[in-house]
Design goal:
Length: 218
């Protein structure tokens, strides 16, 4: 009996040590944060935390939003305070969200296709926007249906190709799955088709906040 109690005591001690190590590891390895990389090559200029760029006939503004800003934009745009991308309380953010504003300053139509907008990490992983169609697919994989209420926020998202008439402005969200924790840098690339059929590119870089010097990362 004494041997059993002794063994039980050793198990409790080991379990306590494991929990302490896990807790310390969680404190030392928090969810990484990212910021615009002003030192890297970009298509536009950085104004505060917003990238601004364009050409003779078009202009783009792009800013990464946190979860509160994302919900505020959805509510202002749709009238519904519903965020399909919100995580559970206490859990890390699961997505990168960007507010994109596009203005057609030319005399012909512009075309913008969100599915031509990619996020590529320094580890060569490429991500595409996660619209309601992708969320619905993920729900089905779990044997569930996408809540009908989520469809109310569709007009807040850039999900399908759009045409902008001369003088028109369009705004919406591009949402991507969060990059892996070992990612150091990534680039977001947007593409527009101009009225003459030419393609215009807008590329902006981001880096982890603990990466301070410009260098090549593998």
């Amino acid at each position: 009996m004494n041997k059993r109690f002794a063994m039980f005591g050793r198990v409790l001690v080991l379990l306590g040590l494991y929990c302490a190590v896990a807790a310390n590891a969680a404190k030392l390895d928090p969810d990484p944060q990212f910021e615009p990389d002003a030192e890297a090559e970009a298509s536009g200029s950085l104004q505060g935390s917003t990238w601004v760029g364009g050409g003779p006939t078009w202009k783009i503004w792009l800013k990464e939003l946190d979860s509160v800003e994302r919900l505020n934009f959805i509510e202002r745009t749709t009238g519904f305070a519903i965020d399909p991308y919100a995580g559970r309380p206490g859990e890390p953010e699961g997505y990168h969200t960007f507010l994109v504003v596009i203005e057609n300053q030319g005399t012909g139509q512009l075309s913008f296709n969100p599915q031509s907008c990619w996020l590529q990490t320094n580890r060569t992983k490429v991500l595409l926007p996660q619209g309601l169609a992708e969320l619905s697919f993920n729900y089905r994989l779990m044997g569930r249906e996408l809540p009908v209420a989520y469809e109310n926020i569709q007009k807040a998202l850039f999900e399908r190709a759009i045409l902008l008439d001369p003088g028109a402005t369009a705004s919406g969200l591009l949402v991507y799955e969060r990059v892996q924790n070992n990612t150091k840098r990534w680039n977001l690339g947007l593409r527009l088709t101009l009225s003459d059929g030419e393609r215009a590119a807008f590329n902006v870089p981001y880096r982890r906040t603990d990466v301070k010097k410009k260098r090549s990362d593998g």
